[in-house]
Amino acid sequence: MERNLKNVLVISFGFLLLFTAYGGLQSLQSSLNSEEGLGVASLSVLYAALIISSMFLPPFLIEKLGCKWTIACSMCCYIAFFLGNFYSSWYTLIPTSVILGLGGAPLWSAKCTYLTIAGNSYAQKAGKIGRDIINQYFGVFFLIFQSSGVWGNLISSLVLGQSPQQVEISEEDLKCCGAYDCITAAANNTTAFKKPEMTLVYTMLGIYTGSGVLAVLLIVTFLDQIKANEVESEKETMKKESPLSLVLATFRLLKDKRQCFLIPLTMWSGFEQGFLAGDYTKSYVTCSLGIHFVGYVMICFAATNSLCSMLFGKISQFTGRKVLFSFGTLINLSCIIALLLWKPHPSQFAVFFIFPALWGMADAIWQTQTNALYGVLFEKNKEAAFANYRLWESLGFVIAFGYSTFLQVYIKLYVLLSVLVMSMVGYGIVEYMESKESPRPPTPVSKEITGAPAQETPLWSVPAACIVYGGNYHSKNAPVCECKSSRGRGSKGCTMAEDHNTKDTLKPLVFRLHDSVPKMVREVLMERGWSEFDKRQQDKSDWNLYWRNTPFHVTDHRNIKPWQRLNHYPETVKITRKDYLARNLKRMKGIYGSALYEFSPVAFIMPNDYVKFIAEYSKERQSQGRKSSYWICKPVNLSRGRGILIFQDIKDLIYDYVVIVQKYISNPLLISGYKWDLRLYVCVTSFCPLTIYTYEEGLVRFATEKFDLSSLDNVYAHLTNTSINKFGPSYKKDKVGIGRGCKWTFSKCRSYLRSIGVDDLLLWQRINNIVTLTLLAITPSVPLTHNCFELFGFDILIDDKFKPWLLEVNCSPALHLDCSIDATVKKGLLHDVIELLNYKQIDTLRQSKGVRTKASCASNHRLNALSLLLYNLSWKLQEDHLVKRP
Ligand code: ADP
């Protein structure tokens, strides 16, 4: 048998043995140790110890002992409690209850941790998804464990039913049963409360203790230790859940009003279970039928409870939770009222079973629906939410068992009634608050945490300047940059993430968006199963990706965590602002020669370069006689074609802010008489070493009126911005040769180019060269920052000699969707960008895995000059081959 599955079975049967014993004994506590309410007091103490233990002990013990020995030792705490019952007194039961309470939390935590590690380990070996295997393991565990409620109670009823002289309960004594029981002392003196024969009690305790010992032996003998590397990774998890941070997160969640309103409902769960186990068993069953019936009655509860849990889980999908909560309330309300009125009598034998059956049904609703409610409401903060759940539920138990001795049953029933009403009011308010909130986009459950409906074939190609080891991408060696890490979907490629041990968890990746980010980004991330950061509920380090349209603050870069990514590098404005780009490309031209950096039209920054511009303008006029070049004047700080002016005569040049005056490409390559340019998407995942991906699909943006140099002020003929053309009179018209709208995809453009005999691959190569040379202009000056990436939009215009020109570089290329072509291109693009970021499952943990260090890049920068020489050579070679005219 597969080793991991064997371990799952060992744990499951170990728990079955232990909880068969514990479950049976818990149901009997109130009846078996009824003197001065010792039994219920011990249960109350037990749950209080459990609350404290769950806050502090599990991480510490698991780290020190490992999962196997934590499970074994915690089980011994249960055995101590069983032994304490042999000589039940305040001095034995209370301390052993504390011991059990302390052991309870580490036991469950260690079990969960073990199953998770085993599931991940198997998934890794078998190449399956960790979460699926973990779910299967938990399924097996609960399937086996569930039945413990039946066996323990069956044992108690069978053993205690063996008494040769079954006590006949007198009619007088029966008056003391039910809601108006003759509280504690009186009730305990009745025949029914006479302790069963001690030999039978010892036999039963002996069986329970034996069962507990067997559980420990099973674990010690057959459960494998987790391997050293798995423990290491687990220790990291435990460090994250440091007691203090979890406690703080738990209490921080109380700032959320919804959590506060849910407290009564959560406590109700403890109250109602406490009542059934402590009071119903004692004041109704034991009192009227005898202690040996407690087991049978509780089996009835356990059976309906399990059955209905499964059932309601399914039904809720059709009815919604509100209907089920109402149904649960109705059942409990009717039961409470009936219990207040009912005078239990052995003649109504069946009724003793109807109540636990109904109670089990309602309890199934509370358990499944309240858990689910927490999961949905506090989706982004599940850990703290469930810690709150456990805390308030346990407190409900503590109170219910705590007051059990002092209050008469009818008063407890009124208390239950009030708590139930309060719960429903609180729950109603939460539902109301939820309905008031603006509807949130649905979070589809994705198959894989980082998996996604991504492109079948990645469309990124790596310009020749990057070395990529293996992978699906076009690659070519050159000395400028390198990239060695692995990439998602099994292929190798470039990544910013360090290789962590992957470890699956149920947490989703979290994204954080700045206000102005288009909703498509949210949609795509949601599609990939990510969830959105909620600053009200989450810590500021609790996100994986922060996307904004404007640059980040220095502190954002400084405080970045290993699992986080920012969508901008610092200093990239040096190529994304028109005047800085012009200046930097001019500088590069000065250093590396105009032959290499001649892809950007000559530009002057005004007013600073006014004199130089006049000189150039006059020179041209003189050399060309009366015919002068065309110029385009663009405000440096504006985008979307705003404030642009095209002119030929200097007298038309008017500007009142900083602008660049650039040579206007007056011979663009036209398609059916229309001007067009390319919006090329480029993703840089590292500047050190420089790692660039150019997206092979992109947008071809058309002007919507025919190109005409005699009407320079017609923006629809000269500018290709969609923001302008979508308001043009011909936008919706079917334009000959280009169709409706103003966009094509790259693919369509490529086929067109091929159809007119252009070597589109060579053109693509030249465009890639432009991208690399432009980025090289700023590579040395981008500060060494970790975990950034940047998606640039390069605007490229091709002239009628098939020469590509760089018009500008956009730092946050538009990601909103204007038409179906936008949706095809941009959605695919974004999915692939996220793929490139190479998130690992370890990133979903959002915990520190040590400081990321990077080697100095000085040597890389020194290599730039060398690489540029190589480029120069290849550029020249390509030039002669670019156009194959028909
Ligand atoms: P913005 O980002 O403000 O839109 P761009 O530089 O992208 O500024 O220019 C807008 C449009 O003007 C381009 O899409 C292109 O159609 C046209 N354009 C810009 N510069 C030139 C140029 N030098 N030659 C020809 N057309 C140009």
Task: Describe it.
By secondary structure, the protein is α+β, with helices and mostly antiparallel strands. Among the domains are: 1-161 and 197-239, Growth Hormone, Chain: A (Up-down Bundle), CATH 1.20.1250.20; 180-195 and 241-438, Growth Hormone, Chain: A. Strands 1, 12, 13, 14, 15, 16 and 17 form a 7-stranded antiparallel sheet that branches. Strands 5-4-6-7 form a 4-stranded parallel sheet, with helices on one face. Helix 18 (554-558) links the parallel strand 6 and strand 7. It is elongated and about 125 Å long. The two termini are 69 Å apart. Bound molecules: adenosine-5'-diphosphate. Keywords: Glycoprotein, Membrane, Transmembrane, Transmembrane helix. It comes from Alligator mississippiensis. Pfam families: TTL (PF03133), UNC-93 (PF05978). It is a multi-pass membrane protein.
